[in-house]
Protein backbone atom coordinates (compact mmCIF):
# COMPACT_ATOMS: atom_id res chain seq x y z
CA UNK A 1 0.00 0.00 0.00
CA UNK A 2 1.20 3.51 -0.81
CA UNK A 3 0.85 6.42 1.65
CA UNK A 4 -1.23 4.27 3.97
CA UNK A 5 -1.59 5.31 7.61
CA UNK A 6 -0.99 2.30 9.86
CA UNK A 7 -4.07 1.29 11.83
CA UNK A 8 -3.40 -1.92 13.71
CA UNK A 9 -7.01 -2.58 14.73
CA UNK A 10 -8.36 -2.16 11.19
CA UNK A 11 -5.59 -4.18 9.55
CA UNK A 12 -5.91 -7.08 11.99
CA UNK A 13 -9.64 -7.21 11.22
CA UNK A 14 -8.97 -7.53 7.46
CA UNK A 15 -5.85 -9.69 7.17
CA UNK A 16 -4.84 -13.08 8.59
CA UNK A 17 -2.76 -13.38 11.75
CA UNK A 18 0.39 -14.44 9.87
CA UNK A 19 0.44 -11.30 7.66
CA UNK A 20 3.91 -9.75 7.39
CA UNK A 21 3.99 -6.01 8.04
CA UNK A 22 6.75 -4.08 6.26
CA UNK A 23 7.47 -0.34 6.33
CA UNK A 24 10.34 2.05 5.68
CA UNK A 25 11.72 5.14 7.44
CA UNK A 26 14.56 7.52 6.62
CA UNK A 27 16.83 10.09 8.24
CA UNK A 28 14.34 12.66 9.62
CA UNK A 29 16.40 15.59 8.34
CA UNK A 30 16.29 14.12 4.82
CA UNK A 31 12.56 13.48 5.19
CA UNK A 32 11.98 17.12 6.16
CA UNK A 33 14.05 18.33 3.21
CA UNK A 34 11.98 16.23 0.81
CA UNK A 35 8.62 17.11 2.41
CA UNK A 36 9.47 20.81 2.39
CA UNK A 37 9.81 20.67 -1.38
CA UNK A 38 7.05 18.16 -2.17
CA UNK A 39 4.32 19.71 -0.01
CA UNK A 40 5.08 23.36 -0.81
CA UNK A 41 6.00 24.02 2.83
CA UNK A 42 7.85 27.32 2.20
CA UNK A 43 4.55 28.70 0.86
CA UNK A 44 2.51 27.17 3.67
CA UNK A 45 4.90 28.56 6.31
CA UNK A 46 5.37 31.85 4.42
CA UNK A 47 9.16 31.48 4.31
CA UNK A 48 10.59 33.63 1.53
CA UNK A 49 14.33 33.12 2.04
CA UNK A 50 16.62 31.53 -0.56
CA UNK A 51 17.18 28.58 1.78
CA UNK A 52 13.83 27.87 3.49
CA UNK A 53 15.21 24.71 5.13
CA UNK A 54 17.92 26.66 6.95
CA UNK A 55 15.46 29.38 7.93
CA UNK A 56 13.04 26.81 9.32
CA UNK A 57 15.75 24.98 11.28
CA UNK A 58 16.76 28.16 13.08
CA UNK A 59 13.55 27.89 15.13
CA UNK A 60 10.89 25.35 14.03
CA UNK A 61 8.57 26.37 16.90
CA UNK A 62 8.15 29.77 15.27
CA UNK A 63 6.08 28.07 12.55
CA UNK A 64 4.02 25.71 14.70
CA UNK A 65 0.69 27.48 14.20
CA UNK A 66 1.21 27.48 10.43
CA UNK A 67 2.66 24.01 9.90
CA UNK A 68 -0.21 22.13 11.54
CA UNK A 69 -2.97 21.72 8.95
CA UNK A 70 -6.41 20.13 8.85
CA UNK A 71 -7.92 18.28 5.92
CA UNK A 72 -11.62 18.92 6.52
CA UNK A 73 -12.73 16.26 4.01
CA UNK A 74 -11.44 13.48 6.28
CA UNK A 75 -11.18 15.38 9.59
CA UNK A 76 -7.45 14.72 9.89
CA UNK A 77 -4.95 17.13 11.43
CA UNK A 78 -1.30 16.59 10.63
CA UNK A 79 1.99 18.45 10.45
CA UNK A 80 4.12 17.66 7.38
CA UNK A 81 7.10 19.43 8.95
CA UNK A 82 7.15 17.60 12.27
CA UNK A 83 6.68 13.88 13.03
CA UNK A 84 5.40 12.89 9.61
CA UNK A 85 6.79 9.34 9.64
CA UNK A 86 5.30 8.68 13.07
CA UNK A 87 1.96 9.98 11.78
CA UNK A 88 2.12 7.54 8.84
CA UNK A 89 2.79 4.75 11.33
CA UNK A 90 -0.32 5.64 13.30
CA UNK A 91 0.99 7.89 16.06
CA UNK A 92 -1.44 10.76 16.83
CA UNK A 93 -0.30 14.35 16.42
CA UNK A 94 -1.52 15.23 19.92
CA UNK A 95 0.97 12.84 21.52
CA UNK A 96 4.22 14.40 20.34
CA UNK A 97 5.13 15.85 23.75
CA UNK A 98 4.43 12.64 25.72
CA UNK A 99 7.79 10.83 25.85
CA UNK A 100 6.51 7.78 27.74
CA UNK A 101 3.60 7.31 25.34
CA UNK A 102 5.97 7.69 22.41
CA UNK A 103 8.35 5.05 23.75
CA UNK A 104 5.50 2.58 24.34
CA UNK A 105 4.17 3.09 20.84
CA UNK A 106 7.54 2.62 19.14
CA UNK A 107 8.11 -0.56 21.16
CA UNK A 108 4.71 -1.77 19.98
CA UNK A 109 5.60 -1.03 16.36
CA UNK A 110 8.84 -2.96 16.75
CA UNK A 111 6.81 -5.97 17.89
CA UNK A 112 4.17 -5.57 15.15
CA UNK A 113 6.42 -5.24 12.10
CA UNK A 114 8.35 -8.05 10.45
CA UNK A 115 10.79 -5.45 9.13
CA UNK A 116 11.10 -1.68 9.05
CA UNK A 117 13.56 -0.85 6.29
CA UNK A 118 15.82 2.21 6.19
CA UNK A 119 16.08 4.31 3.06
CA UNK A 120 19.55 5.34 4.30
CA UNK A 121 20.61 1.67 3.91
CA UNK A 122 18.27 0.57 1.15
CA UNK A 123 20.40 -2.20 -0.38
CA UNK A 124 21.02 -3.87 2.98
CA UNK A 125 17.31 -3.50 3.79
CA UNK A 126 16.29 -5.09 0.48
CA UNK A 127 18.56 -8.10 0.99
CA UNK A 128 17.25 -8.58 4.51
CA UNK A 129 13.68 -8.32 3.19
CA UNK A 130 14.49 -10.91 0.50
CA UNK A 131 15.77 -13.33 3.12
CA UNK A 132 12.99 -12.82 5.64
CA UNK A 133 10.27 -13.23 3.00
CA UNK A 134 12.05 -16.04 1.08
CA UNK A 135 11.85 -14.00 -2.12
CA UNK A 136 13.92 -14.13 -5.30
CA UNK A 137 16.56 -11.56 -6.20
CA UNK A 138 14.38 -10.03 -8.92
CA UNK A 139 11.70 -9.31 -6.30
CA UNK A 140 13.86 -6.67 -4.58
CA UNK A 141 15.26 -4.81 -7.59
CA UNK A 142 14.36 -1.14 -7.73
CA UNK A 143 14.84 2.08 -9.68
CA UNK A 144 15.18 5.52 -8.06
CA UNK A 145 12.06 7.66 -8.58
CA UNK A 146 10.83 11.13 -7.59
CA UNK A 147 14.42 12.37 -7.52
CA UNK A 148 13.59 16.06 -7.86
CA UNK A 149 15.94 19.04 -7.96
CA UNK A 150 15.37 22.12 -5.82
CA UNK A 151 17.46 24.98 -4.46
CA UNK A 152 18.09 23.68 -0.92
CA UNK A 153 18.53 19.99 -1.76
CA UNK A 154 22.27 19.95 -1.13
CA UNK A 155 22.19 22.00 2.06
CA UNK A 156 23.84 20.20 5.00
CA UNK A 157 22.38 21.31 8.37
CA UNK A 158 24.84 22.24 11.11
CA UNK A 159 25.16 20.25 14.34
CA UNK A 160 23.20 22.98 16.11
CA UNK A 161 20.39 22.78 13.55
CA UNK A 162 20.24 18.98 13.81
CA UNK A 163 20.05 19.27 17.60
CA UNK A 164 17.12 21.67 17.19
CA UNK A 165 15.47 19.30 14.72
CA UNK A 166 15.89 16.35 17.10
CA UNK A 167 13.73 18.23 19.58
CA UNK A 168 11.17 19.25 16.95
CA UNK A 169 10.91 15.79 15.36
CA UNK A 170 11.54 13.80 18.53
CA UNK A 171 9.13 10.98 17.65
CA UNK A 172 10.53 10.58 14.14
CA UNK A 173 14.08 10.49 15.51
CA UNK A 174 13.08 7.86 18.06
CA UNK A 175 11.58 5.81 15.22
CA UNK A 176 14.69 6.16 13.09
CA UNK A 177 17.13 5.43 15.92
CA UNK A 178 15.13 2.41 17.08
CA UNK A 179 14.75 0.81 13.67
CA UNK A 180 18.32 1.62 12.67
CA UNK A 181 19.50 -0.45 15.65
CA UNK A 182 16.91 -3.12 14.86
CA UNK A 183 18.04 -3.35 11.23
CA UNK A 184 21.70 -3.87 12.08
CA UNK A 185 20.83 -6.32 14.84
CA UNK A 186 18.87 -8.43 12.34
CA UNK A 187 21.66 -8.15 9.77
CA UNK A 188 24.23 -9.32 12.34
CA UNK A 189 22.15 -12.46 12.87
CA UNK A 190 22.33 -13.29 9.15
CA UNK A 191 25.96 -14.39 9.16
CA UNK A 192 29.08 -13.37 7.18
CA UNK A 193 27.65 -14.06 3.71
CA UNK A 194 25.12 -11.27 4.00
CA UNK A 195 27.32 -8.51 2.60
CA UNK A 196 28.45 -10.69 -0.28
CA UNK A 197 24.79 -10.93 -1.27
CA UNK A 198 24.41 -7.15 -0.89
CA UNK A 199 27.26 -6.72 -3.38
CA UNK A 200 25.58 -9.16 -5.76
CA UNK A 201 22.19 -7.43 -5.54
CA UNK A 202 23.75 -3.99 -6.10
CA UNK A 203 25.58 -5.28 -9.18
CA UNK A 204 22.47 -6.89 -10.68
CA UNK A 205 20.36 -3.85 -9.87
CA UNK A 206 22.81 -1.58 -11.68
CA UNK A 207 22.78 -3.82 -14.76
CA UNK A 208 18.99 -4.06 -14.79
CA UNK A 209 18.64 -0.30 -14.32
CA UNK A 210 20.96 0.32 -17.28
CA UNK A 211 19.03 -2.10 -19.47
CA UNK A 212 15.61 -0.75 -18.45
CA UNK A 213 16.74 2.85 -18.93
CA UNK A 214 17.56 1.99 -22.55
CA UNK A 215 14.19 0.30 -22.92
CA UNK A 216 12.44 3.32 -21.43
CA UNK A 217 14.20 5.63 -23.90
CA UNK A 218 13.23 3.36 -26.79
CA UNK A 219 9.68 2.57 -25.68
CA UNK A 220 8.08 5.30 -23.57
CA UNK A 221 4.50 4.02 -23.94
CA UNK A 222 3.75 2.35 -20.59
CA UNK A 223 0.72 0.56 -22.04
CA UNK A 224 2.98 -1.44 -24.34
CA UNK A 225 2.72 -5.21 -23.96
CA UNK A 226 5.52 -7.74 -24.15
CA UNK A 227 4.19 -9.07 -27.47
CA UNK A 228 4.37 -5.69 -29.22
CA UNK A 229 7.68 -4.51 -27.80
CA UNK A 230 10.63 -4.28 -30.16
CA UNK A 231 12.80 -5.18 -27.17
CA UNK A 232 11.31 -8.66 -27.05
CA UNK A 233 14.33 -10.27 -28.68
CA UNK A 234 16.85 -8.35 -26.57
CA UNK A 235 16.09 -9.66 -23.10
CA UNK A 236 18.74 -9.32 -20.41
CA UNK A 237 19.78 -12.63 -18.90
CA UNK A 238 20.90 -12.52 -15.27
CA UNK A 239 23.04 -15.58 -14.69
CA UNK A 240 22.62 -17.87 -11.70
CA UNK A 241 24.76 -17.39 -8.62
CA UNK A 242 24.89 -18.51 -5.02
CA UNK A 243 22.21 -15.91 -4.31
CA UNK A 244 19.82 -16.37 -7.22
CA UNK A 245 18.63 -18.65 -9.97
CA UNK A 246 18.91 -17.46 -13.58
CA UNK A 247 16.17 -15.11 -14.76
CA UNK A 248 15.25 -12.94 -17.73
CA UNK A 249 14.58 -9.21 -17.70
CA UNK A 250 12.20 -8.31 -20.52
CA UNK A 251 10.12 -5.33 -21.60
CA UNK A 252 7.26 -6.17 -19.24
CA UNK A 253 9.65 -6.36 -16.28
CA UNK A 254 11.04 -2.94 -17.21
CA UNK A 255 7.56 -1.51 -17.69
CA UNK A 256 6.62 -2.44 -14.13
CA UNK A 257 10.00 -1.37 -12.72
CA UNK A 258 9.82 2.06 -14.38
CA UNK A 259 6.13 2.69 -13.70
CA UNK A 260 5.07 5.17 -11.05
CA UNK A 261 3.35 3.74 -8.00
CA UNK A 262 0.13 5.54 -8.90
CA UNK A 263 0.12 3.77 -12.29
CA UNK A 264 0.48 0.38 -10.63
CA UNK A 265 -2.30 1.12 -8.13
CA UNK A 266 -4.68 2.68 -10.64
CA UNK A 267 -6.31 -0.59 -11.80
CA UNK A 268 -7.14 -1.37 -8.17
CA UNK A 269 -8.58 2.08 -7.47
CA UNK A 270 -10.66 2.54 -10.62
CA UNK A 271 -13.49 0.24 -9.58
CA UNK A 272 -16.17 2.28 -11.41
CA UNK A 273 -16.37 3.74 -14.90
CA UNK A 274 -16.38 7.32 -13.63
CA UNK A 275 -13.44 6.75 -11.28
CA UNK A 276 -15.73 7.41 -8.33
CA UNK A 277 -13.26 6.04 -5.80
CA UNK A 278 -10.07 7.42 -7.31
CA UNK A 279 -8.33 9.40 -4.57
CA UNK A 280 -7.01 12.95 -4.63
CA UNK A 281 -3.35 12.95 -3.60
CA UNK A 282 -2.34 14.71 -0.41
CA UNK A 283 0.03 16.88 -2.48
CA UNK A 284 -2.87 18.25 -4.53
CA UNK A 285 -4.89 18.81 -1.36
CA UNK A 286 -1.97 20.68 0.19
CA UNK A 287 -1.80 22.93 -2.87
CA UNK A 288 -5.54 23.59 -2.61
CA UNK A 289 -5.28 24.33 1.11
CA UNK A 290 -2.49 26.87 0.54
CA UNK A 291 -4.61 28.53 -2.16
CA UNK A 292 -7.59 28.76 0.22
CA UNK A 293 -9.60 26.07 -1.56
CA UNK A 294 -11.47 23.11 -0.02
CA UNK A 295 -9.85 19.67 0.07
CA UNK A 296 -11.41 16.45 -1.22
CA UNK A 297 -11.03 12.72 -0.74
CA UNK A 298 -12.13 11.60 -4.23
CA UNK A 299 -11.29 13.09 -7.62
CA UNK A 300 -14.92 12.92 -8.72
CA UNK A 301 -15.96 15.24 -5.86
CA UNK A 302 -13.15 17.62 -6.76
CA UNK A 303 -14.17 17.67 -10.45
CA UNK A 304 -17.78 18.50 -9.51
CA UNK A 305 -16.59 21.37 -7.33
CA UNK A 306 -14.20 22.73 -9.99
CA UNK A 307 -16.96 22.58 -12.63
CA UNK A 308 -19.27 24.56 -10.35
CA UNK A 309 -16.56 27.17 -9.80
CA UNK A 310 -15.99 27.37 -13.55
CA UNK A 311 -19.71 27.86 -14.28
CA UNK A 312 -19.97 30.51 -11.55
CA UNK A 313 -17.01 32.42 -13.00
CA UNK A 314 -18.49 32.26 -16.51
CA UNK A 315 -21.82 33.62 -15.24
CA UNK A 316 -20.02 36.39 -13.38
CA UNK A 317 -18.08 37.28 -16.52
CA UNK A 318 -21.30 37.48 -18.56
CA UNK A 319 -22.88 39.75 -15.95
CA UNK A 320 -19.87 42.04 -16.08
CA UNK A 321 -20.13 42.17 -19.89
CA UNK A 322 -23.78 43.25 -19.80
CA UNK A 323 -23.24 46.05 -17.26
CA UNK A 324 -21.46 48.46 -19.69
CA UNK A 325 -24.22 47.88 -22.28
CA UNK A 326 -26.91 48.69 -19.71
CA UNK A 327 -25.06 51.84 -18.67
CA UNK A 328 -24.86 53.02 -22.29
CA UNK A 329 -28.60 52.47 -22.74
CA UNK A 330 -29.31 54.50 -19.60
CA UNK A 331 -27.14 57.34 -20.88
CA UNK A 332 -28.97 57.35 -24.21
Automatic annotation (TrEMBL):
Molecular function as annotated in GO: galactosylceramide sulfotransferase activity
UniProt keywords, alphabetically: Glycoprotein, Golgi apparatus, Membrane, Signal-anchor, Transferase, Transmembrane, Transmembrane helix
Localization terms from the record: Golgi apparatus membrane
Annotated membrane topology: Single-pass type II membrane protein
Record's signal peptide: none
Keyword Glycoprotein: yes
Keyword Transferase included in the entry's annotation: yes
Pfam families named in the record: Gal-3-0_sulfotr
A GO term from the CC aspect: Golgi membrane
Protein's GO biological process: glycolipid biosynthetic process
InterPro entries (alphabetical): Gal-3-0_sulfotransfrase (IPR009729), P-loop_NTPase (IPR027417)
Family: Belongs to the galactose-3-O-sulfotransferase family.
PANTHER family documented for this protein: GALACTOSE-3-O-SULFOTRANSFERASE, PUTATIVE-RELATED
Record protein name field: Galactosylceramide sulfotransferase-like
Organism expressing this protein natively: Branchiostoma belcheri (Amphioxus)
Organism lineage string: Eukaryota, Metazoa, Chordata, Cephalochordata, Leptocardii
Gene: LOC109476453
